[in-house]
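Example 9 (inverse folding). The structure is encoded as follows.
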C-alpha cells in the first residue's frame, strides 16, 4: 500500500509542477515531455501496486501465510522496507514542501562571480556552474561542436543587427564569446537584469539572464558586460532592454579581453514571467 501512495505521490508532484509552472525551474522546457512521460508511468505503476495490494489482501484473508509475501523482493526485514520507503518518499517531501527559489543577483554574488577559464579551474568537468558564456561544447566532440557553431554563426553574421529573443538567447551569447571578432561593430538588442559588479569602479554593468542548458546542473548566468551611457545607473535586479554596439575590451578582474556592449539606448522593462532562458538543440 505504501508503494501505491508513493507512486501516486510522484504523479501528483509532477502534475503539480506542470500546472504551477514550477517544472521549468528544474529542467529545460524542451524536455517537458519526459516529465509527462514519467508522470504517466508512475500513475500506471501506482495502479499496478493497487491491484497487487488488493490481491494480496484477498490472499491474506484466505490463508494466514503472510510471511511468504515479504520474501518476493529481498527486503524482508521491516526496517529495510522502512528505509526504502523513506528514500522513495524523500523527493516528494522536497518537491512539495520547499519553495523553488526565485532568482536574483544575490545568487550571482553568493556563487562568487568568476569566469571559468578552463575545465580544470572549475573542478568537476561534467557539472560546471557557468558564467557569462553558455558552453555546450561538453556535450559534443570537438569537430561536431565546431561544425554546429559555424553553422549557427552563418544565421547571425549576415546582418549588422543581432536580434536576441528568448529562444536564441543562449545560442547568441555562446557565439559572441566563441567568435568575438565576427560580432565586433554589430548592433545588439537584448533584455536581462542588471548586475553591478563590485569588482570595478567604471560604469560597467553586466546584463544577464539565468539560463538552463539541459537541467539545473548546467544552469548559470549568461550575458554581456555593458558600458551604460553617462549618468545611467541601475540597481541590481532591475530589468532592462539595452541596445548598443559590440566591441571587445580588457576586463581587469578576469585578466582577459571579453566582448562588451557600448550601450546607446536603454530602458526599464517588466520582469518576464519566467526568468529562465533555455537552450534549444
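The amino acid assigned to each position is listed next.
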Amino acid at each position: 500500500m505504501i508503494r501505491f501512495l508513493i507512486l501516486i505521490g510522484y504523479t501528483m508532484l509532477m502534475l503539480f509542477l506542470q500546472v504551477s509552472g514550477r517544472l521549468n525551474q528544474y529542467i529545460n522546457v524542451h524536455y517537458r515531455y519526459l516529465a509527462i512521460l514519467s508522470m504517466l508511468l508512475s500513475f500506471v505503476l501506482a495502479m499496478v501496486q493497487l491491484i497487487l495490494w488488493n490481491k494480496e489482501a484477498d490472499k491474506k484473508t484466505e490463508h494466514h501465510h503472510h510471511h511468504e509475501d515479504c520474501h518476493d523482493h529481498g527486503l524482508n526485514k521491516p526496517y529495510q522496507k522502512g528505509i526504502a520507503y523513506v528514500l522513495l518518499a524523500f523527493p516528494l517531501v522536497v518537491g512539495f514542501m520547499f519553495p523553488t527559489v526565485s532568482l536574483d543577483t544575490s545568487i550571482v554574488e553568493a556563487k562568487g562571480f568568476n569566469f571559468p577559464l578552463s575545465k580544470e579551474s572549475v573542478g568537476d568537468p561534467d557539472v560546471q556552474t557557468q558564467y557569462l558564456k553558455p558552453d555546450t561544447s561538453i556535450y559534443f566532440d570537438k569537430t561536431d561542436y565546431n561544425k554546429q557553431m559555424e553553422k549557427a554563426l552563418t544565421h547571425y553574421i549576415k546582418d549588422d543587427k543581432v536580434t536576441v529573443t528568448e529562444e536564441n538567447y543562449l545560442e547568441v551569447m555562446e557565439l559572441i564569446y566563441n567568435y568575438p571578432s565576427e560580432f565586433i561593430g554589430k548592433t545588439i538588442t537584448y533584455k536581462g537584469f542588471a548586475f553591478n559588479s563590485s569588482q570595478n569602479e567604471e560604469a560597467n554593468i553586466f546584463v544577464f539572464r539565468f539560463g538552463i542548458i539541459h537541467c539545473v546542473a548546467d544552469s548559470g548566468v549568461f550575458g554581456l558586460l555593458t558600458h551604460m551611457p553617462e549618468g545611467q545607473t541601475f540597481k541590481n535586479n532591475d530589468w532592462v532592454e539595452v541596445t548598443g554596439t559590440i566591441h571587445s575590451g580588457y576586463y581587469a578582474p578576469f585578466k582577459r579581453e571579453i566582448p562588451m556592449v557600448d550601450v546607446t539606448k536603454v530602458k526599464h522593462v517588466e520582469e518576464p514571467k519566467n526568468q529562465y532562458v533555455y537552450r534549444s538543440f
